[in-house]
Amino acid sequence: MIDLLATILQGAWSVLVASAPFMLFGFLASGFLKAFLPSGFVRKHLGENRIMSVFKAALLGVPLPLCSCSVLPTAAELKRQGAGKGAVGAFLVSTPESGVDSIAVTWALLDPLMTVIRPVAAFLTAAATGLGILATEDDEAPDTEEMPSADDTCCCDDCKAPAENGSTCSKMVEAFRYGFGELMEDIGPWFVVGVLLAGMIQGLLPADLIPETLGTGLLSMLAALAVSTPLYVCATASTPIVASLALKGLSPGAALVFLLAGPATNVTSLTVVTRILGKKASAIYLSTIIVSSLLLGLAVNMLYNTLGLDTSKWLAKAIEDEPGLFSLTSAIVLSLLLLRALAGRFLNR
Fold first, then answer.
1. With left for phi above 0 and alpha for psi between -120 and 50, is residue 323 left, alpha or beta?
2. Is 143 exposed, middle or buried (0-12, 13-18, 19+ CB in 10 A)?
3. Which pLDDT belongs to residue 259?
4. Cα–Cα–Cα angle for 81, 179, 73, nearest 5°?
5. Can you say how many angstroms the Cα of residue 235 is from the centroid of all Cα atoms in its chain?
């Protein structure tokens, strides 16, 4: 039992060390993006109910550092201020599925190809969702008087209002405060859970269990979809889980399905999405995410097979080398910041 626990903790620590420098960069970049993005920039480009607004929403959501909880009050406010359902739906998909923080950790734990594929797939899924909703928007006109308030859309305790415009110095302070404060309190605990689950997968799951039981085709993607759809797992936290599952034989297509469907769908957020978009648009929202994830997963399987790339080497490559001083220092700093974030969440309850 002690040996098994030691194996799990060692695996979790290896994942943390491999990802720590990229996580710190991701939090910092997210903070600067949030602080220096002009006030009203997103609202300005989503305010018109046109096809172009859907593509803009899908594109704007890709780098933004908001998880599937934090994006809800933002989307509700955009809807209340006149953004079309198609644009809001696209924003609700691409924003939690991708972000500068999750892109950074994807580079660390997966591979450069998936680092590119992940945000592109998020954009395509979001655009398809928004266009599908846009096609039915005239049939279900919005009722802004019944829109939920920002407080009603919070599915956690850390929905924060956007920062006001200020001097460059104040924005620098805000960047660090948001990146290593609010954002870390938001997704840090879930990242810890993801790292621990990654260690458990490495220590408990037999090497060939996934390919032997689920294969590497559509069945494994459906299994990934069934697991990820009802659960809350943010984009950053889902990455170490997927990396460990790939080490045990999970196909790249199933990995992408988990990375797309997990952050964009969960029971709590779907309830709020229904209030924001309406029942018909929410049905399109969920079904498009499911279909798009599966189709993109099949395409990614074909691409990796054609290129002869082995996903089982994703995490192995990241942790096989002896960690250097920079990685170890980053892991210690990240651990201290995560402990601070966990304490902050606990004290704020």
1. beta
2. exposed
3. 92
4. 25
5. 2
Q: Within 13 A of 345's CA, how many CA atoms are on the CB side? A: 18
At 180-199, the pLDDT tens digits run: 888 788 777 878 888 888 88
Amino acid identity for residue 318 in this structure: A
Residues in the chain: 349
Q: In angstroms, how far is the first alpha carbon of the chain from the final one? A: 34
Least confident of 43-47, 90-94, 111-115, 275-279: 43-47
Our measurement of the distance from residue 299's CA atom to the centroid of its chain's CA atoms, rounded to an integer in Å, reads 21
Per-residue pLDDT band for 236 (boundaries 50, 70, 90) equals confident
DSSP 254: H
Per-residue pLDDT, 30: 77
pTM: 0.77
Beta strands in 34-192 (DSSP E): none
Residue 160 has what pLDDT? Answer: 47
Distance CA 242, CA 11 (A): 14
| Spatial CA neighbour of 269 closest among 74, 62, 52 | 74
Contact (CB, 8 A) for 231 and 263: no
Q: What are phi and psi of 83, to 5 degrees?
A: -65, 140
Asked whether the CA dihedral 35, 38, 44, 50 is positive or negative, the reply is negative
Q: What is the dihedral of CA 137, 141, 146, 149, to 10 degrees?
A: 30
Q: What is the pLDDT of residue 43?
A: 65
Q: What is the DSSP letter of 99?
A: -
Question: Which pLDDT score, from 0 to 100, does residue 179 have?
Answer: 82
* DSSP of 286-320: HHHHHHHHHHHHHHHHHHHHHHT--TTHHHHHHHH
Q: Which of 268, 185, 189 is nearest to 230 (CA)?
A: 268
- Spatial CB neighbours of 325, under 8 Å, sequence gap ≥ 6: none
